[in-house]
Design brief:
With 162 residues, the chain is mainly alpha-helical. The chain is built from six helices and three strands. The chain has a three-stranded antiparallel β-sheet with strand order 1-3-2. Helix 1 crosses helix 5 (101-121) and helix 3 (56-63) packs across helix 4 (67-79). The longest helix has 26 residues, at 7-32. InterPro entries: HTH_MarR-typ, MarR/SlyA-like, WH-like_DNA-bd_sf, WH_DNA-bd_sf.
Length: 162
């Protein structure tokens, strides 16, 4: 019989509780800005990408959304003027999602409160050494459970053109 206090159950339980608590802390600022968690996740991934753009397939892979799911999110963000689709110069079958100036402004509007919430309820609770170890640990796990999370990311010095 497997014991109910198995550390594997504790680990996943703690991770779930932390995630739920953090989202409860961060969602009000996103909602006040008219964004869902998925909207913001999409915008911040674009903001942190070269030229503020990603191939639609890479955006789907990074966000963990299906192709149709990311299409719906990009459609909604495009209607709001936050994102625009751009044709790929080298592959007519592919397109990019790119932040507009309005999209960059929206991310900048949300970031101060978002970073405050992260600092207050998450990273600020850890020493620099603990945070470095925690981030390394998360990357190890992420690379196994979500290997496409960095799809479309480029190495320093690499040039990417939509």
């Amino acid at each position: 019989m497997i014991p109910f206090d198995d550390p594997r159950l504790t680990a996943i339980g703690l991770l779930t509780e932390v995630y739920a608590g953090l989202m409860a802390k961060m969602t009000p600022a996103l909602t006040a800005a008219g964004l869902s968690e998925v909207d913001f996740g999409t915008l911040i991934r674009l903001a942190r990408s070269p030229h503020h753009s990603l191939r639609m397939g890479d955006l789907a892979a990074q966000t963990g959304l299906s192709t149709s799911g990311v299409t719906r999110v990009v459609d909604r963000l495009e209607r709001d003027g936050l994102v625009v689709r751009q044709a790929c110069a080298t592959d007519r079958r592919a397109s990019y999602a790119a932040l507009t100036d309005k999209g960059v402004d929206k991310v900048q509007e949300v970031l101060p409160q978002h970073l405050h919430d992260i600092e207050e309820s998450f990273t600020g609770l850890l020493s620099p050494e603990q945070l470095e170890t925690f981030l390394a640990t998360l990357r190890i796990i992420r690379d196994v459970v979500h290997p496409c999370a960095t799809a479309g990311a480029v190495e320093p010095g690499q040039i990417v053109r939509p």
